[in-house]
């Protein structure tokens, strides 16, 4: 397992060791022992999976404490641009975003810690995304930021006028007035 630190502290890309032969491939998508060996001590309690078609944009979502979630995101089918925004007010990278292309082919995963908003856009015809969470969903603690917030200047890899966005995500507040408690 290879751990790559991003420019934002605590936000890391995890690349598993893939073993392939004429039959196909095998890899450990998650190993608590290996994660703990590199200093990542998280107990996941819930797996979520989504299916989306090309042009779908989901996010940017988070849950406030005490139900804040760490997410380990990977793509089972297709290709996405995965985005995290640092909401930790005491962080030197507060308000900065990071994006990475996650695909079924590259098998990379993004570990999004508590204190970040998260979202993704679908680049392939369809995509199946799986993410592990260390807290259960709690509707009362959910929050979000507009995907097209000009202060974030996120490149979603698509023309936003063509994006398929839920009504809920279209009316999220801009970062400067979001209800983040981090």
Automatic annotation (TrEMBL):
It catalyses: dTDP-4-dehydro-6-deoxy-alpha-D-glucose = dTDP-4-dehydro-beta-L-rhamnose. Coiled coil: none annotated. The keyword Isomerase applies. The record marks 137 as: Participates in a stacking interaction with the thymidine ring of dTDP-4-oxo-6-deoxyglucose. GO terms for cellular component: cytosol. Its EC number is 5.1.3.13. GO terms for molecular function: dTDP-4-dehydrorhamnose 3,5-epimerase activity. GO terms for biological process: dTDP-rhamnose biosynthetic process; polysaccharide biosynthetic process. It comes from the Bacteria. The active site is at 61 (proton acceptor), 131 (proton donor). Pathway: Carbohydrate biosynthesis; dTDP-L-rhamnose biosynthesis. Keywords: Isomerase. Gene3D superfamilies: Jelly Rolls. Pfam families: dTDP_sugar_isom. Catalyzes the epimerization of the C3' and C5'positions of dTDP-6-deoxy-D-xylo-4-hexulose, forming dTDP-6-deoxy-L-lyxo-4-hexulose. Belongs to the dTDP-4-dehydrorhamnose 3,5-epimerase family. Homodimer. This is dTDP-4-dehydrorhamnose 3,5-epimerase. It comes from Flavobacterium agrisoli. The lineage of its organism: Bacteria, Pseudomonadati, Bacteroidota, Flavobacteriia, Flavobacteriales.
């Amino acid at each position: 397992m290879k751990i790559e630190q991003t420019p934002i502290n605590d936000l890391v890309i995890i690349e598993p060791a893939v073993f392939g032969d004429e039959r196909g491939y095998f890899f450990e998508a998650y190993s608590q022992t290996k994660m703990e060996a590199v200093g990542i001590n998280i107990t996941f309690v819930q797996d979520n999976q989504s299916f989306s078609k090309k042009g779908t944009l989901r996010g940017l979502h988070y849950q406030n404490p005490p139900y804040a979630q760490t997410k380990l995101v990977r793509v089972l089918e297709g290709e996405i641009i995965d985005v995290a925004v640092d909401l930790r007010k005491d962080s030197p990278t507060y308000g900065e975003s990071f994006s990475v292309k996650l695909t079924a082919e590259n098998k990379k995963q993004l570990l999004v810690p508590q204190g970040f908003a998260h979202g993704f856009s679908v680049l392939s015809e369809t995509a199946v995304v799986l993410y592990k969470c260390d807290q259960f969903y709690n509707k009362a603690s959910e929050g979000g930021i507009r995907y097209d917030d000009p202060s974030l200047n996120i490149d979603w890899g698509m023309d936003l006028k063509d994006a398929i966005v839920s009504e809920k995500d279209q009316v999220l507040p801009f970062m400067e007035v979001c209800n983040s408690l981090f």
